[in-house]
Structure formats: structure tokens, C-alpha cells
Amino acid sequence: MPFDCRQTGQARSGLNNADVAQTLKQLHHQASGRDALVFARALPAIIAGKFTGRSTFEAAEPYLAKAFIPVSEEFGRFMYLTALSRGSKNIVEFGSSYGISSIYLAAAARETGGFFTGTEKDSAKAAVALENLDAAGLSRWSDIREGDALESLAPLEGPVDFLFLDGWKDLYIPVLKLLEPKFAPGAIVFADNIHSFRKTLKPFVDYISDTSGDYETTILDIGSGVSFSVWRKAH
Ligand SMILES: C[S@@+](CC[C@H](N)C(=O)[O-])C[C@H]1O[C@@H](n2cnc3c(N)ncnc32)[C@H](O)[C@@H]1O
């Protein structure tokens, strides 16, 4: 059995665990307030972007340094369930921000007996993400590597069975290629913002959708578009 999914009434270990649920509730609330302000400040750039063919996210990008820009609860749960159902033991994230998606993935790692490794280049955000994982009771099963993911993930040990791409969009392909040699057969790759960064992510979508390539992929209309791929190549 890849993981023990039995729950005892008191010590629930999934998303219904009291510390996990409470921390996620607070963080989603905090994120919606802060990000609403950030996007309000970015409004003139967003409007100007409409005339130059830039998406809302692309136009707002210079304002987003301290924003949460988290996954939705729906998508967080979906990734949690996917990681859990595969029994993913080595779960990796590119772009952790304040740790909302990290909590969903670390909660899965706790249940599979695995480990979650997040990455965040903003040191203040990385520190808060670690605090949030701690508040959720998930420190033992998780870490956030501070700095550029291309450097911090280079020494990561494989096999990696689950990767979530959510950092800056021009780095999706480099981060993916960095980790490919470490992928377990059937590794899962999720990537966010496929629709909101349509132009920037076109090379990435072409790469993971290439029918003669190494992935089987579908694009889901969750939030601002999510790609879901399975690595088919055997090393
Ligand atoms: C969309 S936010 C991530 C949101 C997070 N996954 C969540 O759902 O809560 C993107 C984050 O990626 C981080 N980032 C961007 N480029 C990075 C890089 N090269 N290495 C590590 N983190 C990076 C940004 O600082 C930002 O906090």
C-alpha cells in the first residue's frame, strides 16, 4: 500500500486536519484582501495592456512582487488529491510565494510518507512560507529552498514524482528540463496560468503537448488555465 489513507477521528492528517484547514482558511482570506489591492494599483497598466494585447496578469506583473497570487482552493485540493492518489513521495514546487499551494502539497506528502520541496526567490516570502507550513503542522514533511529555483533545485535528489510549476513563466521550460532527468516513470507535472499567460507560455504548452514528445498532456479550465501532464519516458 503506497500510503495509509485511514483516518482516526482525532488525528486527521489530510486537508481536514484542524491546523491545515485553519491555516489555509486564514491565508486564502489574507491573500484575497492583499491581491485585490495589488490589482487595484495595477489597474492603469492593466487597462493600457488591453490596447497592446497584454493579458491582465502580464500587464500587472511589475506590481506582483509582494502579492500572494495563490492557487484557488479548488485547484489546491485537486493537486492534493492527485499527489495523494499517486502516493507521491517526492513533491516539488517552482514558485511557492507565501506557501498556500505548498500547504496542499505538503499535506499530501505527510500522508504518503514523502517530502515536499518548495522554492521561492524572495527571501521574505520564503521565510513566511516556512512559518505558514509550521502553523499548518507540516514542517517535518516540507522545506522551502530560498533563491532562484534553477540553482536551488539543481542538487535535488530524485526520483521526483510530482512537480508543480507556478513561478515566473519564462522559467517553466528551464525548470522542467532541469528536473526531467530526475523524473520517476509516470511523474505528474502541473503548471498554472496557461490561459492568463497564453503568449509567454506558448513554447511551454507546445513542448508538453508535442505528441512525439515525452508527455501526455491535457489543459484544464480551472482558474486561469492549468496544464496536467504525465511523463511517459523511461530513463
Ligand atoms: C504565482 S506566485 C506562486 C503562488 C504559490 N504557488 C501559491 O499558490 O501560493 C509565483 C512566485 O514565484 C516566485 N518566483 C519567480 N521566479 C522564481 C525563481 N526563479 N525561483 C524561485 N521562485 C521564483 C515569485 O517570487 C512568486 O512569489
In short, what is this structure?
This protein has 235 residues and is of the alpha/beta class.
What does this 3D model show about the protein?
By secondary structure, the chain is an alpha/beta fold. The protein has two domains: 18-63, no CATH class; 73-231, Rossmann fold (3-Layer(aba) Sandwich), CATH 3.40.50. Helices cover 42% and strands 19% of the residues. It is built from nine helices and seven strands, in the order H-H-H-H-E-H-E-H-E-H-E-H-E-H-E-E. It has a seven-stranded mixed β-sheet, with helices on both faces. Helix 5 links the parallel strand 1 (90-94) and strand 2. Helix 1 packs antiparallel against helix 5. The longest helix has 24 residues, at 18-41. The chain is globular, with a radius of gyration of 17 Å. Residues 68-71, 95-97, 100-101, 119-122, 125, 148-149, 166-168, 171 line the site of S-adenosylmethionine. S-adenosylmethionine (SAM) is lined by residues 68-71, 95-97, 100-101, 119-122, 125, 148-149, 166-168, 171.
Form type: globular
Spatial strand order of the main sheet: 3-2-1-4-5-7-6
**Hetero compounds:** S-adenosylmethionine
Amount of beta strand? 15-25%
